[in-house]
Amino acid sequence: MAEQQRIHPVPEPEHELPVQKPSVPLVPKGSFSSEKGDPEKQQQQQEPPFRRTIPYYPPLKPPKRRCCSCKRCLCCTCCLLLLIIIIIAALSAAFYFVFQPKIPKYSVDSMRITQFNFNNDMSLLFATFNVNITARNPNKKIGIYYESGSQLSVWYTGVQLCEGSLPRFYQGHQNTTVLSLDLSGQTQNVTGLLQALQVDQQRGSIPLILRAKVPVKLKIGKLKLMKWNFLVKCKLDVDRLSANNAIRIRNSDCQFGFRL
């Protein structure tokens, strides 16, 4: 016979009771059984609540503006220019009080015409003037070197009649020099000039202008300064313009200027 399958009884497991967390503390309030107090509260006090830490970044400095550097540069430039102006003014004042410079004086004393005629068809004018000019140097401590390259000319109604130059010479302190100069030239297209000249000669008043540009060097003590240009403009009023006749200067007014 086949063996019958044996069934062994299995004991039923004991029902596990759920463990409940006591709702009442093991140690009642007011009890001094623990020196450190309630362990749960102690744990809660030891563990601080979670806080998000934000890193600290220092505020960025604003970038330096370029305009500030430009203003600083402009201010320095203005201060430098002001300093240069003050130095130049101080030197000029010292020069003025030590040497007491005075403006040279010029005058046209007399004028004579040796040639003043037209060609056959009255289209060309030939003129030669002899002019006596007086140059005065009133300075006590400044001498004047008249250099070569000077230009003198006589003008009538905006037309140049003749030209010449000054000789090269040295004029000492408080010196007066009389110069006799010959100026000559020729002028083309003089039809309008001839008509105006006839009208002025009938009135007996002919306006002339003498212009002079003279390069000079000033001598102060033993020091010879750089070259300057003396500019002289004399307004003349004469009675006539004709050859081989004495010309009377009715009025003369000379103005002086200079430049480098």
From TrEMBL:
<keyword id="KW-0812">Transmembrane</keyword>
<dbReference type="InterPro" id="IPR044839">
    <property type="entry name" value="NDR1-like"/>
</dbReference>
<feature type="domain" description="Late embryogenesis abundant protein LEA-2 subgroup">
    <location>
        <begin position="133"/>
        <end position="227"/>
    </location>
</feature>
<feature type="region of interest" description="Disordered">
    <location>
        <begin position="1"/>
        <end position="55"/>
    </location>
</feature>
<dbReference type="Pfam" id="PF03168">
    <property type="entry name" value="LEA_2"/>
</dbReference>
<feature type="compositionally biased region" description="Basic and acidic residues">
    <location>
        <begin position="1"/>
        <end position="18"/>
    </location>
</feature>
<dbReference type="GO" id="GO:0098542">
    <property type="term" value="P:defense response to other organism"/>
</dbReference>
<keyword id="KW-0472">Membrane</keyword>
<dbReference type="InterPro" id="IPR004864">
    <property type="entry name" value="LEA_2"/>
</dbReference>
<feature type="transmembrane region" description="Helical">
    <location>
        <begin position="73"/>
        <end position="99"/>
    </location>
</feature>
<dbReference type="GO" id="GO:0016020">
    <property type="term" value="C:membrane"/>
</dbReference>
<protein>
    <recommendedName>
        <fullName>Late embryogenesis abundant protein LEA-2 subgroup domain-containing protein</fullName>
    </recommendedName>
</protein>
<keyword id="KW-1133">Transmembrane helix</keyword>
